[in-house]
Amino acid sequence: MDDKIFNIYFLIFVFSFILFNLSNLFAGEYVGNQSIAGIKPVSPPINSLNLKYLSFSFTAPKDGVIDLIMYPVANVIGSPNYKIGIMGDDGNGKPNNIWLSYTFYNSFSPNSWATINISSTTLVKDKVYHIVIDYNGMDSNYITTVYTLPRVNLIPENQIEDNNLNYIEWSSNSWNVKNYMPIFLIKYSDGFYHGNSIVRIQVENIRKW
Asked: Torsions phi, psi of 188, nearest 5?
């Protein structure tokens, strides 16, 4: 082939390649981890004066038994006590107010993870469940927790989408879906962890499985 013709074909190929990749870029094509640890607001005090109940909703990734719940604690005032456990879903993305299991817990430390052992609780794959925190004490003793924005509905470890991930507050005598990204972990009895544990962007604050 004539060198001049070859150079023309080569330039056409290069130009086409550049246009193709630019079109993908501006079309918003992403690769890799899309989880975002953005704004990290602190919840209202979890007590009967502010936020009597709080729920973190999620879809069970597999059949199995869970025995541990974890979530971040921002502030601890006094010596608070809570009823913490798992509820089912009412079909509208809110807790059905029926406890599947619960325990009472008061061993909180500020700026740390609350680690709550619960009685063995069977979850069914693809069903929606709620981690519920129920205030159980004097209003002057309470904790706050954190969530992140924006709500991206992705499990950071495997990038599986879960449109049922949500942060739900009890206020004005009803459950209110806030569309925040909840931060929590559950542990299955086989050692499998599931949830969103990204609290900050720094690597040291992302839990390793």
From this structure: -80, 160
Higher pLDDT, 63 or 155: 63
Evaluate if pTM is beyond 0.70. Answer: yes
| β-strand pairing of 142-144 with 174-177 | unpaired
Distance CA(166)–CA(122), nearest Å, equals 21
Q: What's the Cα-to-Cα distance from 180 to each of 86, 89, 101, 103, 113, rounded to whole Å?
A: 19, 18, 25, 25, 19
Q: How far is CA 117 from CA 13, 120, 170, 186, in A?
A: 61, 9, 24, 10
Mean model confidence pLDDT for the chain:
80
In the structure encoding, which two tokens stand for residue 148, read together?
């992140």
For the stretch 129-152, pLDDT in tens is 999 999 988 888 999 999 988 888
> Quick check: 126 and 194 in contact, CB under 8 A?
no
CATH architecture of 53-205: Sandwich (2.60)
